């Protein structure tokens, strides 16, 4: 399985769509991501409609609902405002599951020491961010991605911007980090 690319990012307020790598680059391994609850699979996005591997993951994880979203300037109304909104640090009370079918984008997640890790998502990447993890989403400089959103049961769209430490799911998540 191809290793997903992830790295610690700088604190520059330059365009959020840039890679923001530290110099020298500080890569983050799949193993390190797993320690904070982030799971990754590399699939064949060309056959997503009939992919037995995707079907198996959906059955094992209980992902019963899916939809597909295309994000790009010419199709998403108020593109720049939406991008700023996605980039607000937040958490969800459910896992966030995304599968990139085409294009590219970034997810940023916090590690145990509160440092930002940028995860580069490209075609075929399926990622699960655990409920309660602080994260944000942004496009890269191509300004295009097509992604499948997966859910356990009915889709939940509510994001809780930081601070949201009072939620039980956040407490449960931070407690899970103590053991890793």
Automatic annotation (TrEMBL):
The enzyme's E.C. designation: 1.13.11.53, 1.13.11.54
One GO molecular-function entry: iron ion binding
Signal peptide: none
Top EC group: oxidoreductase
Pathway: Amino-acid biosynthesis; L-methionine biosynthesis via salvage pathway; L-methionine from S-methyl-5-thio-alpha-D-ribose 1-phosphate: step 5/6
Sites where the protein binds Ni(2+): 90, 92, 96, 135
GO annotation terms (biological process): L-methionine salvage from methylthioadenosine
Binding site for Fe(2+): 90, 92, 96, 135
Keyword list, A-Z: Amino-acid biosynthesis, Cell membrane, Cytoplasm, Dioxygenase, Iron, Membrane, Metal-binding, Methionine biosynthesis, Nickel, Nucleus, Oxidoreductase
Pfam families documented for this protein: ARD
Superkingdom field: Eukaryota
Cofactor, how bound (note): Binds either 1 Fe or Ni cation per monomer. Iron-binding promotes an acireductone dioxygenase reaction producing 2-keto-4-methylthiobutyrate, while nickel-binding promotes an acireductone dioxygenase reaction producing 3-(methylsulfanyl)propanoate.
Any one Gene Ontology cellular component term annotated for this protein: cytoplasm
Reactions accelerated catalytically: 1,2-dihydroxy-5-(methylsulfanyl)pent-1-en-3-one + O2 = 4-methylsulfanyl-2-oxobutanoate + formate + 2 H(+); 1,2-dihydroxy-5-(methylsulfanyl)pent-1-en-3-one + O2 = 3-(methylsulfanyl)propanoate + CO + formate + 2 H(+)
Subcellular location: Cytoplasm; Nucleus; Cell membrane
Database matches in HAMAP family: Salvage_MtnD_euk
Self-association state and partner proteins as the record states: Monomer.
Protein name: Acireductone dioxygenase
Organism of origin: Scomber scombrus
Gene name of the record: ADI1
